[in-house]
Amino acid sequence: MDLEEIEGLWLGILQVQGGMELRLLFNVSISPDGSVNATMDSLDQGVKGIPVEAVTYKDGNLHLGVKSIRGAFDGTLKEDGKTIEGEWKQSELTLPLVLSRINETPDTRKEQDPVKPYPYDEEEVTYENEEAGVKLAGTLTLPHSEGPFPAVILISGSGQQNRDEEILGHRPFLVLSDYLTRRGTAVLRVDDRGVGGSTGNFSQATTEDFAGDVLAGIEYLKSREELDPTRIGLIGHSEGGLIAPIVAVQSHDIAFIVMMAGPGIPGEEILYLQSDLISRAEGVDNETISRNEALMRSMYSVIKKEQNNTIAEEKLRKLLADELANMSEEEKQSSGYSEADLDAQVNAQVQALVSPWMRFFLTYDPSPTLMQVKCPVLAINGEKDLQVPPDENLQAIEKALKAGGNSDYTVKELPGLNHLFQTAETGSPSEYAKINETISPSALELIGNWISEHTADMENKQ
Fold it and tell me: Which residue numbers delimit the Xaa-Pro dipeptidyl-peptidase-like domain (predicted)?
C-alpha cells in the first residue's frame, strides 16, 4: 500500500438536488509515524476541518469515511495519479464524485469580501447577558474618523449563525459591516448563543431570548466612549427583523431599526407561503405541494394544541409515519429521507417541531409589536424572496407601523433580489451558493444612505 499516492489535496464537485453544486475538498496527510490523517471541507457551505475518521487505500481503491455526517467516498485512482473516480454516499443518497489532485486550497473568498488591511479599526469583544448567564462574543468595527460615532448591532436570521451570518460560502454581515464602517458607522456583529465564542444553549432559546442578547449588546455599546449612545440602531435580517422591533419596544435607547426581509405576518403563515413558493420554483407538482401543506397544517395544529411535549411528540411521529407509509421510495429520497436512518431523521424532525423556538415562532404575530415601535424604521424585502415573501410581509409591516402612528418609516421592495438580497433569477435557495454576489450594491447603498440621513439628523438636533 503506497499511501504517498493519495497524499495531498483532492477536490470534487457534487451535483445535488435543485441543480446546486457543492465543492468537497479532502486533505490527506501522512504523519512521520506512518499514520494517515484526513479532513474534509465543504467549501460552498463554509464548513472546514470535518474529521475523516476512516482512511483505507489498497490496490488503487480509496475509502474515506466521514462518520459525523454519515458520509463516505469510495473511488479508484486512475493511472495518471491525478484523478480518483468514485461515489459519494450520505445516508441512502449515492452521487457520482470525481476527485482531482490540486496543489493549493481554492480561494473561497467572494468578490465582495473585504481584504485586509481595513481602513478602520477592528476589535474582538465579549460581554455578558447576565440575566440569561450567557457570554456573547463578537467583532466591533470602528471608523478612523473622529467620534463619537453612530453604531448598529447586526441581528442574524434563524438557525445557528456566526457573527458573519455565514451561509453557503457567503458572509453577508462581514460585507455589510465593512460597507457601513467605511461610511462612518460603528458596527457590532455577534456569534449566536452556543456558536463560535458565545456560550449558551441555542436549542432551548426562543426569539425573545435572542432579543435579550441584543439588549445586552446595547448596554455594551453604551459603555464605549467612542460611540454616541443616542444614535444606536439595529439591523435585523430575516428572524433578526422579527427581533429588532421587540428590542425597540423594550429599550428607549434604540434610535432606529432596519428590517431586512423581516416578517410582518405570523410564523405559521410564512412557513406555508415559503413551502409553496420554494416547491414551485423547484418544479414540484401541485399534488405534492397540496399534500405537503396538509401535513404541515396537521403538525402545526398538534404543536399549537398540545403543550405537553411527550404527547405532542407521539402524535407528530404518528403523522409522519402515516405520511411515510404512503410515499414511494423515490418520493422518500427526494424528500431527504433514507431507510437506514429513518428513525433518527423522524426524531430530529419531531424535536425541531416541539422546540421552544418553533412553538414561539409559529404563533407569534409581529403586528402588535410593530404598532408600538416609535423610532424610524426602514423595512426592505427582495422582490424574489421566497422565504419571507415581500407582498404579504411588507404590507403587514406598513399597516402596523401606520396604525401605531409611527411618523418615520420607509417600506420598500427591491427589484430582482432574493432573501439574501442577492441579484437572483428565481429566488430559490438552491441559487444562493451559485451567485457570486453576497449583497446587491443597491441594497447596501439604500441601507447606508438611510442610516446616514437619520443619524445626521439626530446629531444636528443635539
Answer: 133-397
- Of 209, 260, 267, 199, nearest in space to 234 by CA: 260
Whole-angstrom Cα distance, residue 423 to residue 438? 9
C-beta atoms surrounding 24 within 10 Å: 23
d(C-alpha 428, C-alpha 418), whole Å: 8
Q: What is the pLDDT of residues 56-105, one digit of tens each?
A: 999 999 999 998 888 899 999 999 899 999 999 886 678 899 999 999 98
Tens of pLDDT along 317-360? 999 988 888 777 777 666 666 665 667 778 888 999 999 999 99
Output the 3-class SS for 27-76.
EEEECCCCCEEEEEEEHHHCEEEEECCEEEEECCEEEEEEHHHCEEEEEE
Q: Which three cell numbers stand for residue 441?
A: 450594491
Burial of 394 (0-12, 13-18, 19+ CB in 10 A): buried
Residue type, 443: A
User: Taking the mean position of all CA atoms in its chain, how far away is CA 228?
Assistant: 30
| Cα–Cα distance, 218 to 223 (Å, whole number) | 9
Nearest CA-CA partner of 273 in 132, 386, 147: 386
* Per-position DSSP letters for 190-252, written without gaps between them: EPPTTSTT--S-GGG--HHHHHHHHHHHHHHHHT-TTEEEEEEEEEEETHHHHHHHHHHHH-T
**Phi and psi of 448, rounded to 5°?**
-60, -45
The residue written with cell numbers 411535549 in the block is 309
Architecture of the CATH domain 3-102: Beta Barrel (2.40)
| Phi, psi angle pair for 30, to nearest 5° | -115, 125
Q: What is the mean pLDDT of the chain?
A: 92
- Which pTM value belongs to this model? 0.85
Helix spans in 326-405 (H) = 329-334, 342-353, 356-363, 367-370, 390-403
162-181 pLDDT tens trace: 999 998 889 999 999 999 99
CA dihedral over 253, 256, 261, 262, signed as positive or negative: positive
Return d(Cα 147, Cα 326) in angstroms, integer.
Answer: 64
Query: Which cell numbers in the block locate residue 398?
Result: 406598513
The residue extents of the domains of the chain are: 3-102, 120-266+364-461, 268-361
The CATH H-level (homologous superfamily) assignment of domain 120-266+364-461 is Alpha/Beta hydrolase fold, catalytic domain (3.40.50.1820)
Nearest 10 degrees: Cα torsion 396, 398, 400, 403: -140
